[in-house]
């Protein structure tokens, strides 16, 4: 996992070494070998990940330290968003699923459907400002966050980006108007699942061009999400994609997962998507807002606890 990749300099390795028929040894750490086919599962140890040169115990400790600090800043983000009347949604997917196209279509649709709702976007990519430029072309404010070699956004990055939105005097009316903040994460179905950014909910976007087996191949992502958006449904006549099988697989991982089917290109299903978004911006009294924020925080902590138990 990206929490520990590249940090294998502790010298605390507890890997196992054995000889192969080709005459030299390899360190394999905690790996399960399927007796039938010889398939290798490197997530069988306590850390659920194999890092060369690092013990499972050290990996678990390092991950706990890093994610713990991230959660602390995520809580600050959550309070900051709440204080400004902002509902933050974390959009996750593999590259090419259509997140940016969906956001551009959403911004334009909200102008007509809910002109009183302010929208801003934090864009995450390793390099370039292509996606932020596309968002800014719609008239919505956007801040690009380039992560370099990083494969996900984290809470400190989001905190700094949100501060940049403020410094550029974009729409911040506190409680006068409803505000949506879309955080488009780096395209990756693995690492971003574990990182709380302070969002109200995670939304995973799955394109029908990717295959219906993705929820079982990348279960952490779908387990962490509140909503799965099946995008590009206009292409279904040209694909062998079983929608119901995909939904069944996703709900095997997350029984309470909500599902919407839409096409950001044709507009099919967009009304249901807007309905879902606007539910988050509906007026509520202080006790409801506090409860929602507390539930979001508890859900983030529960996801971390579940991941720890699965180790």
Automatic annotation (TrEMBL):
Key word Ligase present: no
Stored InterPro entries: CobW/HypB/UreG_nucleotide-bd, Hyd_mat_HypB, P-loop_NTPase
Designated name of the protein: Hydrogenase maturation factor HypB
NCBIfam families per the UniProt record, alphabetical: hypB
Alphabetical keyword list: GTP-binding, Hydrolase, Metal-binding, Nickel, Nucleotide-binding, Zinc
Residue stretches making up the CobW/HypB/UreG nucleotide-binding domain: 91-260
Organism of this sequence: Roseateles puraquae
Molecular function via GO: GTP binding; GTPase activity; nickel cation binding; zinc ion binding
Transmembrane segments: none
Alphabetized Pfam families for the sequence: cobW
Protein family (similarity comment): Belongs to the SIMIBI class G3E GTPase family. HypB/HupM subfamily.
Domain of life assignment: Bacteria
GO terms for biological process, alphabetical: protein maturation
Cross-referenced PANTHER family: HYDROGENASE MATURATION FACTOR HYPB, HYDROGENASE PROTEIN ASSEMBLY PROTEIN, NICKEL CHAPERONE
């Amino acid at each position: 996992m990206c929490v520990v990749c590249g940090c294998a300099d502790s010298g605390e390795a507890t890997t196992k070494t054995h000889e192969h028929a080709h005459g030299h040894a390899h360190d394999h750490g905690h790996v399960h070998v399927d007796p039938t086919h010889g398939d290798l599962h490197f997530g069988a140890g306590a850390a659920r990940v194999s890092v060369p040169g690092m013990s499972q115990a050290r990996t678990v400790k390092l991950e706990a330290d890093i994610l713990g600090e991230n959660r602390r800043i995520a809580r600050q983000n959550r309070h900051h968003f709440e204080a400004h009347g902002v509902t933050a949604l974390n959009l996750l997917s593999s590259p090419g699923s259509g997140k940016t196209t969906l956001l551009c279509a959403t911004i334009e649709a909200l102008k007509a459907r809910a002109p009183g709702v302010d929208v801003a976007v934090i864009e995450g990519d390793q390099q370039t400002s292509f996606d932020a430029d596309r968002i800014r072309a719609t008239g919505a404010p956007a801040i690009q966050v380039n992560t370099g070699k990083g494969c996900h956004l984290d809470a400190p990055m989001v905190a700094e980006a949100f501060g940049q939105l403020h410094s550029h005097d974009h729409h911040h009316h506190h409680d006068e108007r409803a505000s949506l903040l879309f955080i488009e994460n780096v395209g990756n179905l693995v690492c971003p699942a574990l990182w709380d950014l302070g969002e109200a909910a995670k939304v995973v976007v799955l394109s029908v061009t990717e295959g219906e087996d993705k929820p079982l191949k990348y279960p952490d992502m779908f387990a962490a999400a509140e909503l799965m958006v099946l995008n590009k449904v206009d292409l279904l006549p040209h694909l062998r994609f079983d929608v119901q099988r995909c939904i069944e697989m996703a709900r095997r991982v997350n029984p309470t997962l909500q599902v919407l089917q839409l096409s950001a290109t044709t507009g099919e299903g967009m009304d249901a998507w807007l309905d879902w978004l606007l539910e988050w911006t509906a007026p509520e009294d202080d006790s409801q807002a506090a409860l929602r924020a507390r539930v979001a925080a508890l859900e983030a902590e529960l996801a971390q606890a579940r991941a720890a138990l699965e180790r």
